[in-house]
Amino acid sequence: MKFLHLFNKSSTHDGFARIQGYDDIKDIVRRALELDENYNLLFVGPPSSSKTLFLQGILEMKSSVYFDGSNTTSRILDVLEEKRPKIICIDELEKMNRRFQNQLLNFMGMLR
Predict the structure, then answer these.
(1) DSSP H or E segment with residue 101
(2) pTM value?
(3) CA distance 51 to 56
(4) Measuring CA to CA, which of 9, 28, 65, 103 is 20 to 30 A from 81?
(5) Rounded to an integer, what is the distance from CA 90 to the centroid of its chain?
(6) Per DSSP, what are the bridge partners of residue 90?
(7) 19-57: per-residue pLDDT in tens?
(8) Residue 17: how many CB atoms within 10 A of its CB?
(9) What does the domain layout of the chain look like in residue ranges?
């Protein structure tokens, strides 16, 4: 029974537990999440490089809003206006149309 603790969930939940490797990036993201200042993080890489898993991990660790850029509507701006989240996680940003990207950037500038 001395190994029972290995099967219990840790009380300190780590949103990046599902991600193998990338320890340097995990450290940078954790430190950025602890800051009070505004910042932007952009995850860039080939398919299957854990970008979405990082966004999901951030969602687990901090109160934030997530949306998929390939499936955006103007309703998202209404949600952001209503909730005024400190952290916005956008997956598939490159699939978002340019007009909506500009609207989102303008909106984020107003949140400061």
Answers:
(1) helix 98-110
(2) 0.75
(3) 9
(4) 28
(5) 7
(6) 67
(7) 999 999 999 999 999 988 878 889 999 999 999 999 999
(8) 13
(9) 14-110
If one counts every other C-beta atom within 10 angstroms of the C-beta of residue 30, the result is 15
Q: Using pLDDT thresholds of 50, 70 and 90, give the confidence band for residue 86.
A: confident
Check whether 107 has a pLDDT greater than 90: no
Determine contact, residues 100/72, Cβ cutoff 8 Å. Answer: yes
For residue 100, count other CB atoms closer than 10 A to its CB: 15
Q: Tell me what pLDDT residue 2 has.
A: 42
**Whole-number CA gyration radius for the chain:** 16
Residue 76 Cα distances to 17, 20, 29, 39, 88, angstroms: 29, 32, 24, 21, 11
Residue-level pLDDT at 52: 93
The structure tokens 């949306």 sit at 67
- Kindly write down the DSSP assignment for every residue of 30-75, as one continuous string: HHHHH-SS--------STTSSHHHHHHHHHHHS--EEEEGGG--TH
